[in-house]
Design goal:
The protein has 252 residues and is an alpha/beta fold. The chain has helices spanning 3-17, 29-39, 55-60, 84-94, 112-121, 137-146, 161-168, 179-185, 199-211, 213-220, 223-227, 232-250; strands at 24-26, 46-48, 71-75, 102-106, 128-132, 149-152, 173-176, 191-194. The strands form two sheets. A six-stranded parallel sheet has the order 5-4-3-6-7-8, sandwiched between helices. It has a two-stranded parallel sheet with strand order 1-2. Helix 4 packs across helix 9. The N and C termini lie far apart (42 Å).
Length: 252
C-alpha cells in the first residue's frame, strides 16, 4: 500500500480493533499473540480458527504431467516483506546446477518492475516467468501440481495459506522459518524451512528437494493427516460454533 497509506491503515486498524467487540476470531495462535501483546486485547475474547481450503477441489483437479524443466512456483504479492528478490537470487545460484530451472511468480504488486529488472541484471530473465494474478482456482491448482517445489521467502505472514495449498497439491515447499509458518506446518511437515533473508540457504534447501527423492518422500509422508486440520468442511462448523457461542453469551 506504500508507506503513507500503510501507516494510516496501521493506526486505523489498531483503533478499530480496540472497539468493544464481544469476540475476536484469529487465524492463528501467532496472530492471537500479536492481538494480545501489540493491541492489548483480552486473551479470553480471542478464539483461534485456522484458515482452510476446499480439499475436494484439489483432489478433483488433475494434470497429465509435470513441467519438463525443474520448476519452482511462488504465490505472493510483490511487495518488499515477501522477499521475492531473495527467491530470484536463489534461482540465480541454482542455475549453475540446473541451467533450465524455471521460476513461476504468481501475483502482482509494487515491486514487479524492480523484480523484472533484477532478473535481467542477474542474466536469468529467461528462467523467470511473471505469471501475474490468477483468479481461477482450478488454473492455480494446475500450475501448483505441474510444478516441483513451492517457495515462500516472506518474512511476515499471519498464517501462510499458500503453504497449505501447495502441500494439498502434492508438492513440497521451502519456506521461511518464521513463527506463523512453523505453526501451520507443525515445524516443517510437507517441506523444509530456511533461515529468513538467507537466499543461499533458500537455494540449498531447494536443491535438496530437487535432487533427493527420498527427502521429498520423507517430508511429505504425514501431509494427508496434517491437511485434515485445514479442511473447510471441518473449520466451517468450528467457526459456526463460535458464532453461536458468542451470540448466546451476548444475549444472556
Amino acid at each position: 500500500m506504500g508507506f503513507i497509506n500503510g501507516l494510516v491503515g496501521h493506526f486505523l486498524e489498531k483503533r478499530y480493533l480496540n472497539d468493544d467487540f464481544s469476540r475476536y476470531i484469529s487465524v492463528s495462535n501467532f496472530t492471537k499473540e500479536k492481538l494480545i501483546n501489540k493491541i492489548g486485547i483480552n486473551k479470553n475474547k480471542i478464539a483461534v480458527v485456522y484458515n482452510g481450503i476446499d480439499l475436494d477441489i484439489f483432489k478433483k483437479t488433475t494434470i497429465d504431467e509435470k513441467y519438463p524443466n525443474p520448476t519452482i512456483v511462488t504465490i505472493s504479492r510483490l511487495v518488499p516483506y515477501k522477499r521475492i528478490d531473495d527467491l530470484i537470487r536463489a534461482i540465480k545460484i541454482l542455475t549453475s546446477d540446473f541451467p533450465d530451472i524455471k521460476l513461476k511468480i504468481i501475483g502482482k504488486g509494487s515491486q514487479e518492475n524492480y523484480l523484472k529488472n533484477l532478473s535481467k541484471n542477474l542474466g536469468i530473465q529467461n528462467n523467470i516467468d511473471f505469471v501475474g494474478k490468477i483468479n481461477d482456482k482450478k488454473d492455480l491448482i494446475e500450475i501448483l501440481k505441474k510444478s516441483h517445489i513451492f517457495a515462500l521467502p516472506s518474512i511476515t505472514e499471519g498464517f501462510g495459506i499458500v503453504i497449505i495449498e501447495a502441500i494439498a497439491a502434492g508438492i513440497p515447499y521451502v519456506a521461511s522459518d518464521i513463527p506463523s509458518i512453523r505453526e501451520v506446518t507443525n515445524s516443517g511437515i510437507g517441506g523444509l524451512l530456511f533461515k529468513p533473508k538467507d537466499y543461499e540457504d533458500l537455494s540449498s534447501k531447494i536443491k535438496i528437494l530437487l535432487t533427493d527423492k527420498s527427502k521429498q518422500i520423507e517430508v511429505m509422508k504425514n501431509v494427508n493427516e496434517h491437511l485434515k486440520k485445514y479442511d473447510w468442511n471441518n473449520l466451517a462448523c468450528e467457526l459456526e460454533d463460535w458464532y453461536k457461542k458468542t451470540f448466546l453469551e451476548f444475549n444472556k
